[in-house]
Every structure is written in C-alpha cells, then in structure tokens.
Amino acid sequence: MRFVWLVVSVLAFIFCYAASTPGLLAIGLLVGFGSMFCAVLAFAAARIESTSRPDSALLTPEVLAEATERAKRQRAAAQPVPVARPVIPQQPREQP
C-alpha cells in the first residue's frame, strides 16, 4: 500500500504540471501532498513493525508485578552505604 501512495503522489504532481486552471492545480497539489504524507507514514509504520517485538513476547501483568516485587525486595535487602560528612574546623571567635 505504501508504494500505491507513492505512485498516486507522483501521478498527482504530473497532473499538477499539466493542469490548465488554478482549481485543478489546487486539487492536484492537495492530492499530491496528502498522498505523499500517507506514503511517509506508511513507510514509517512498516519500519517500526519490522523492528518491533511480537505480542507474544510482551510481559503479562502477573509477571510484571512479580518482577516489581522482586526489585523492591532486592532494594530493601541492600545495605545502605554510609555517607561520610566532611569535618569543618571551628575557628575561634575574636573577643571585642
């Protein structure tokens, strides 16, 4: 279908070149740019579909909840690393 949109676009622009009135030119341009837009979206959709995972590879809600719980347990079991605070020396105050 994407190549059909491309052919329609080319034919519409050829029609625009041969149009004798401004109305036909406008119709040809609308059809040409509209079909070119559809062709770009069709090519993008085909590219996305070719690199996407199949629906059978998606995680079910149960597996996703289990993975979330496991991550929470691992975070809770991890020992927090103590943060060393720098020691700022106190300067003696001058007496007036």
What spatial form do the alpha-carbon principal axes imply? elongated
Structural class: mainly alpha
| Helicity level | 55-70%
Strand content: under 5%
The low-pLDDT segments are: none
Keywords: Membrane, Transmembrane, Transmembrane helix
Q: How would you describe what is shown here?
A:
The chain is mainly α and 96 residues long. It contains 3 helices and no strands. It has a domain at 1-50. The protein starts with a helix and ends in a 19-residue tail after the last helix. The model has no long low-confidence stretch (mean pLDDT 87). The chain crosses the membrane at residues 28-46. Keywords: Membrane, Transmembrane, Transmembrane helix. Residues 76-96 have a biased composition (Low complexity).
Quick structural gist:
The protein is mainly α. The chain has helices at 2-18, 22-51, 61-77.
What descriptors fit this protein?
mainly alpha, 3 helices, 67% helix, elongated
